[in-house]
Amino acid sequence: MAQKPSIPKGTRDFAPLEMARRNYIFDTIKSVFSLYGFQQIETPAMENLSTLMGKYGEEGDKLLFKILNSGDWKRSLDTESLAGASIGALTNKVSEKGLRYDLTVPFARFVVQHREDIQFPFKRYQIQPVWRADRPQKGRYREFYQCDVDVVGTNSLLSEVELMQIVEAVYRRLGIRVSLHVNNRKILAGIAEVIGQPERMVDITVAIDKLDKIGIDNVNNELLEKGLPEASVVALQPILQLSGTNAEKLDQLENILASSETGLKGIDELRTIFALYADSTQDGDMTTYEPSGMQIELDLCLARGLNYYTGAIFEVKALDVQMGSITGGGRYDNLTGIFGLPNVSGVGISFGADRIYDVLTELNLYPENLQSTTELLFASFGEAELLYALRWAKVLRDKGLCVEVYPEPAKMKKQMSYADSKKIPYVAIVGGDEMAANKVMLKDMVTGSQRLVSMDELLSKM
């Protein structure tokens, strides 16, 4: 019995219509990136594990797809090493490479490796697949595309403002209403300080980042289970429940974090970013930091689990669909330092193309006739007519028209059904009479009307 074909869980095939929709997303995002002077690069699908490990936290390391060494990798193992070695040590013996987890760490490696060839500030975008050994579910895949845009080599907060503008422009063009959630890792560090647990910042941020998903009671239980004193958990509650406008939240937060120099610096950075963004919009309001076109919310529970973020962090959610974040990113001050190039600050965001696809599909926001690329199909009654159609098709293609020739003189109904299924707007029918007149019968597939036309008339029509 033949084996039933299948693909790994968390991966997908993409048919022509799906590819047309995905390319619409990619082309829209690329067009916005280019407006801001970003240039495209690509990096390999696989990286050395030494490049990837330790950059995403303990949970991220577990989700890395490792690639088994080629050749006789079993030769490096023996009974003694199998019995006493940890999982990590065994992994190092059998795997030296892994599939990239995101595009940011490979980009940092790229910057260091090519630092003599690039000009700072360096503005790049990258659209490629990444892989994570996660549990597949709605909106979460093991293979998915990220559309990253980053600028490195500058500390200027104008870079954060430009990224916010890019987010607004992309989703305005796609027709998706979104809310941009903003926080700052310095504020989170300040919160950890004022509740007396500065060394537990990671545990605190990992827990509060789940607030929307599991609720405040479960967040508190998780913090207690991790060993935080009850007094610290109690001190955290009023911070998690701050309300009001973004400006009012920052004012309240300034009083709470008055004893934390780091926290106050984070507040100042957000005030600057909000004000600059508001001022850059046509009807920006410097008081409320709520420019039109996109909801912007200071979200103190937003933590972004990746360890390399050091400043402003961003997350975008669709307003009309139940979906996780569809864009995220932030400031990282020393990611290149781990590769030998310290003190190079960067900031970037990543658009999740696959989740954007799901949002557009659920909201039915794709343009009509997105799949239709062929403008004209030649349909013929016989072999001689088929050769005649080939000659005409070459002339039209040389003029830049997208033309197909049905590959055999099948029944005309079959050829017309093909044109209709591909939403081809015009069919050029070739029979003996058309050949004798050096013309074709041009049929409009929308109206059903048809008329005899010469090459010049066809070119003029098309």
Could you please describe the fold and organization of this structure?
This protein is α+β, with helices and mostly antiparallel strands and about 450 residues long. It has 3 domains: about 10-175 and about 320-370, 2-Layer Sandwich (BirA Bifunctional Protein, domain 2), CATH 3.30.930; about 180-295, no CATH class; about 375-460, Rossmann fold. The protein is about 40% helix and about 20% strand. The strands form 3 sheets. Strands 1-5-6-11-10-9-7-8 form an 8-stranded mixed β-sheet. It has a 5-stranded mixed β-sheet with strand order 13-12-14-15-16, with helices on both faces.
From the structure above, extract its key features.
single chain, alpha+beta, BirA Bifunctional Protein, domain 2, Rossmann fold, 3 domains, eight-stranded mixed beta sheet, five-stranded mixed beta sheet, 16 strands, elongated
Quick structural overview:
The protein is 42% helix and 19% strand.
Described by the principal axes of the CA atoms, the overall outline is elongated
How much of the sequence lies in strands comes to 15-25%
Structural class estimated from helices and strands: alpha+beta
- Report the major sheet: 8 strands, mixed
Alpha plus pi helix count? 18
> Which consecutive residue ranges, at least 5 long each, have pLDDT under 50?
286-292
- Second CATH tier, the architecture of the largest domain: 2-Layer Sandwich
What is the CA-atom radius of gyration, in angstroms? 28 Å
Instruction: Find the CATH topology of the largest domain.
Output: BirA Bifunctional Protein, domain 2
Widest β-sheet, arrangement of strands: 1-5-6-11-10-9-7-8
Number of domains: 3
| Overall average pLDDT | 90
Helix content: 40-55%
Number of strands: 16
